[in-house]
């Protein structure tokens, strides 16, 4: 709603969403198609099935102390390191830069934005969103990291169900493309955006 208020009459935007940001972005785009030029999804969760990592995450989320640790800066740093293929000082600095802003987020909001989507998979809602994506009449693109243990199965299924949607693959990359392979991601985004 806030985004819509800032757009000029007739202006169209490109939306880029990653991971659990995909479903709300798809819903917003479907309700505001006249405002959307392109929708680009990166390693997005969109189906109710569970990968082995999903099942493990649910166990973590059901354990009181682990649940709080998982949404802490330490827990998120560990998750980012585990799901990033690259290593070294530069990667660690990128993660630290992201987490420096995260410290200001209230604990309740952290649990709501991270814990609830992982713990409460809503099959009917996810099926509804994947259908909305299919029916969306805007330019759509998928950017996929094959070595993403979190979302690869989800976005691969999305690409199979939508064969007309162009797919770009980022090689040697885990879940966090912007941390792992920012140059490769920027090249793909530039190609899509015509820059």
Full CATH superfamily name of the largest domain: Alpha/Beta hydrolase fold, catalytic domain
Structural class: alpha/beta
Q: Sheet bearing the most strands, described?
A: 4 strands, parallel
Distance between the termini: 28 Å
Number of helices: 11
CATH fold category name of the largest domain: Rossmann fold
Order of helices and strands: HEHEHHHHHHEHEHH
Characterize the quaternary organization of these chains. single chain
- Tell me the count of domains: 2
Strand order of the largest sheet: 1-2-3-4
CATH architectural type of the largest domain: 3-Layer(aba) Sandwich
Secondary structure: helix percent: 55-70%
List the SSEs and their pairings.
Layout (H helix, E strand, L loop, with lengths): L1 H5 L6 E7 L2 H10 L4 E9 L7 H11 L1 H7 L2 H10 L6 H14 L4 H13 L3 H13 L3 E6 L7 H10 L5 E3 L7 H4 L1 H12 L2
Parallel strand pairs: 1-2, 2-3, 3-4
Helix pairs in contact: 2-8, 5-6
Keywords summarizing the entry:
single chain, 2 domains, alpha/beta, Rossmann fold, globular, 11 helices, 195 residues, 4 strands, four-stranded parallel sheet
